[in-house]
Design a protein that fits this description.
Blueprint lengths: L6 H6 L7 H4 L15 E9 L7 E10 L4 E6 L5 H7 L8 E6 L2 E2 L5 H7 E4 L8 E2 H6 L5 H10 L3 H5 L8 E2 L8 H15 L3 E5 L7 H12 L6 E5 L11 E6 L2 E6 L1 H6 L4 H8 L2 H15 L1
Parallel strand pairs: 3-10, 3-11, 6-9, 9-10
Antiparallel strand pairs: 1-2, 1-4, 4-5, 7-8, 11-12
């Protein structure tokens, strides 16, 4: 097992349908992949292993430029998280594929795939060990670790702990708030500097302050990273490049937030309206400024 895989990836490694031989393949040929973060999802159709005849993602075809920020929304059961997990080959396609920097991910060994693409999920991907171990597993000097903690707003908190970077965390970060756990995961991402980052409802259970910090870091320190965000809070994707709206596993809409909000028949516009008039006005203004 790769020592620098986060807890989500540790679970994924053992999922049904994955051959152990694929995990043992040589990852050395992918040390610098992906180098840009260009993504093309080509006619992707996915189904659960237990229900192969029920398509969860249906013939999805979109292109994402390097560094773009893409929000993914849809009602419960629309296939959002399934799409996120497909980037780690938890689900092998029935048809179609995902291309990242001209590589079909089905041809990339799993170790390289899961090492080189980062995810922050809605679960607390923190495991038993020191803060230093959780962030780097020995790969970075303390000075670099402190810089990453400073970026995510945790430097002061950690520096006040008696053991600082050697402070022991319990399973799932039980001695941290959930927001702190997610910010710790974000610091891990900053250290790894991935070209592709998946956010699977990462802000669904955190306070507003932690959410705002995540959004700030995405727009500054991760501005060149391609981000696909399964969004819980619509405000967090209002200034993204585009929004993908899924309905029953199929693409219903794919456009800039502002263009979608101008369309009265847009499902995204309806979701924004449902969030309350004051919030809807704020989202519209953010989207309008981004469109300029």
């Amino acid at each position: 097992m790769l020592s620098n895989m986060n807890s989500f990836e540790r679970v994924v490694e053992y999922c049904e349908g994955i051959e152990q031989e694929q995990l043992d393949e040589d990852a050395s040929g992918y040390l610098h992949w992906p180098s840009k973060g260009e993504i093309e999802i080509r006619n992707l159709t996915l189904a659960y292993h237990s229900k192969p005849d029920t398509d969860i993602i249906k013939d999805l075809h979109i292109s994402i430029q390097a560094g773009e920020k893409i929000g993914v929304v849809g009602r419960t059961g629309s296939g959002k998280s399934t799409l996120a997990m497909s980037f780690f080959r938890l689900f092998e396609p029935k048809r179609g594929t995902i291309i990242i920097d001209d590589h079909d991910i089905r041809t990339v060994c799993l170790q390289a795939l899961r090492r080189n693409i980062s995810i922050i999920s809605q679960e607390a991907n923190v495991f038993t060990g020191t803060i230093r171990y959780n962030l780097t597993l020995g790969d970075f000097a303390d000075e670099i670790i402190w810089q990453a903690l400073d970026v995510v707003g945790l430097k002061s908190y950690v520096s006040e702990l008696p053991q600082k970077l050697d402070h022991e965390l319990t399973t799932n970060g039980g001695n941290l708030s959930f927001g702190q756990c997610q910010l710790l995961c974000l610091a891990r991402v900053i250290l790894r500097k991935p070209k592709v980052l998946i956010l699977d409802e990462a802000n669904s259970s955190i306070d507003l302050e932690a959410d705002q910090k995540i959004q700030e870091v995405l727009r500054t320190h991760l501005k060149d990273t391609t981000v696909i965000s399964i969004a819980h809070r619509l405000n967090s994707i209002a200034d993204f490049d585009r929004v993908l709206v899924l309905e029953d596993g199929a693409m219903r809409e794919y456009d800039s937030p502002y263009n979608l909000l101008l369309n009265d028949s847009s499902q995204f516009a309806e979701m924004v309206k449902s969030s309350g008039s004051s919030n809807a006005r704020a989202i519209m203004e953010i989207a309008r400024l981004q469109q300029k």
